[in-house]
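HUMAN: Mind making up another protein with tokenized structure?

ASSISTANT:
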Amino acid sequence: MRLRSIVATAVLALPVLLTACGSDGSPAADRSSGADEGGAFPVTVTHKFGQTVVPAEPQRVVSVGVTEQDVLLQLGVVPVAVTEWYGEQPDATWPWAHDLLDGAHPEVLTTDDGFEFEKIAALEPDLIVGTNAGMTKKDYELFSAMAPTITSSKDANDFFSPWQDQVLQIARGLGREADGQQVVDDLEADYARVAAEHPEWADLTATFSQGAPYDGILYVYPPGLSTDFLTELGFTMTTGFEDYAPKGSQAEISAENVGLIDADVIVFATEDQQGFDALQDFGTVGSLAAVEENRAVYTDGTLAGAIYFDTPLSRAYALEHLTPMLEGASEGKAPREYPS
């Protein structure tokens, strides 16, 4: 299935135990030790709909966006409710973050028919977080009548705003901006370290594509749209197919245009054997130079989810698991098969 072009039209089901280390050698999944030193409430957070004042340290946080639970958990806050995106994970929380629930089972919300306003109000939240929620002004006003509500920063896309901005928005609402900045700095340092260990990647182009065609279309990410997990490692994103991308979304590549995505390395976010097989049979995918020469990476479902989630916890998981696959692909040694 395609992702959000993913959630923008519907929350479609698409798109790992975190052991990657931070730059200081500590687990990247470690939670914050608490509120910023001297970080007194109230705090004011500026966002796309104005400003929100959080009067006191939140105790009942509801995540109405599709990935915010990761950030909350990494900052030491177990939300009372989270929102299911895709994957049907336990507690709508993927393996790289699930242990941080500490046995809690938050209410699982859905957006199949829009936000569940009545259910959310009944939870009596004291903070609502929706930095990756596609929230409208009307939605924001309804949520704000229940509790202080934090949404994405000004001028951000509904769903593809930078992960750094989302971390800092959420951290500000928790009164822990310094902790959020530390999360950002540590992960950026980890990616910079891996890039420095692979200077040869700076001379290579890369394409990031969903892992299977959907309704006769392969959805491919143009440069700058959720591709920084590759550019931060030194790769240069392939260009030339941007005309096929609706504003703020993936490029819609038909079978006859598949040749546009060829690159030194291609990352296909495959999720199962069936999707891998469909991909290989789609248009000229099977004869792309990167595919024929074993320079294409195929993920499993969890790694695909980690890339799509694009949170610090999922990105750390992706860095650990994707790095050896990129090493193989850049040397023409990547297996042309679905990961077993």
Observations:
- The radius of gyration is 20 Å.
- The longest strand covers residues 205-210.
- Residues 177-197 form the longest helix (21 residues).
